[in-house]
Amino acid sequence: MKMYSQRLCLEPLEPDHAELLFDGLQSTSIYDFIEDMPPESVESLRDRYMVLARRQSPDGTEIWLNWAVYSLIEKCYVGYIQATITGDNSAILGYVFFPNFWGKGYAREAVNCMINFLVKTYQNIYFCAYVDVGNHRSIALLHNLGFVRSTFFQNIQSNQDEFNYEVEYRKR
After folding, report:
1. Is the CB of residue 5 less than 8 Å from the CB of residue 109?
2. I want to staple 147 with a disulfide (CB 3.0 to 4.6 A). Which of 33, 132, 135, 142 is the partner?
3. Alpha-carbon distance 116 to 96, whole Å?
4. What CA–CA distance (Å, rounded) separates 90 from 124?
5. pLDDT tens digits along 84-128
């Protein structure tokens, strides 16, 4: 189901989005605060999106919701957003926007639209996001959306030293 906000269309992520998002995902500054790397090819990104388009984890314990974000103003894709719904009724949020569109309010608008959808769709859901301590833009976005800092921790699952310190933000 597509969702609309004032300036954006959020499209459920499908394999066909790989070609549309690939170039934007090549900017190395996107990866300053996340462990992902730029996709190697459109085909590898398409393969990844095929898995995500199933909308649930292989063991069935999580619901995976992902949307490509299209700007009705810019007439192009500006990033993607995601929510993982877990068994304890939490939604772990994530978002990636292309650097050319940072500072234009698209992330706030898209994530807010997603949160509103999730509140209407799931009973008693709460939200959390994990952010590298140095990612000031993302921290400001979460504060702007009403998230509060919950826990500071060392990310022992990280395989890269620079991503070892994260902060969890929560919202009910």
Report:
1. yes
2. 142
3. 19
4. 9
5. 999 999 999 999 999 999 999 999 999 999 999 999 999 899 999
